[in-house]
Amino acid sequence: MKRRFLVGRGAAVLVGELLMTWPALYNGYPLRYPDSMSYLEDGGLVVRALFLCKFSADYGGRSFIYCLGILPFHWNVTPWPIVALQALLTASSGSSCGQSCRGKPRCITWFSSCC
């Protein structure tokens, strides 16, 4: 019974992830804001400073931790893995929160909360 519950919860999280990413999929490219580019670009500067001791005069003023956190997912190639990661984290944390608030998670309630 527990395995069936885990499979159902995993399926609910994946469907929730797809519901959260549909605007980017419909658009053909992830939605970005003006500061998105600086988060994507500053990760390389921070890694260079941490591991190679090659410091830069300006790091863009963005969160170093977030820049480092997303760098392994895009490597200055494409932002799609970041979209998938953020949607997965949001869907799984929403599912966990719903489970703790209701006691038993219900997939229909979870899907309706994603829309």
Question: What do you see in this structure?
Answer:
It is a single chain. The protein folds into two domains: 1-32 and 79-115, no CATH class; 33-78, no CATH class. α1 packs across α4 and α1 (2-27) runs parallel beside α5. It has helices at residues 2-27, 36-52, 64-74, 80-102, 107-114. The chain contains five helices and no strands. Helix content is 74%, strand content 0%. It has 115 residues and is mostly helical.
Concise structural overview:
The chain is mainly alpha-helical. It has five helices and no strands.
Spell out the key features of this protein.
single chain; 115 residues; 5 helices; mainly alpha; 2 domains
Low-confidence stretches: none
Tell me the structural class: mainly alpha
Mean pLDDT: 77
Compute the number of helices: 5
H and E order = HHHHH
Helicity range: over 70%
Number of strands: 0
**Total discrete domains:** 2
Beta-strand portion reads: under 5%
The value of Rg in angstroms is 18 Å
Major pleated sheet: none
Characterize the overall form.
Answer: elongated
What is the CA–CA distance across the termini? 29 Å
Secondary-structure blueprint of this entry?
Layout: H1 2-27, H2 36-52, H3 64-74, H4 80-102, H5 107-114
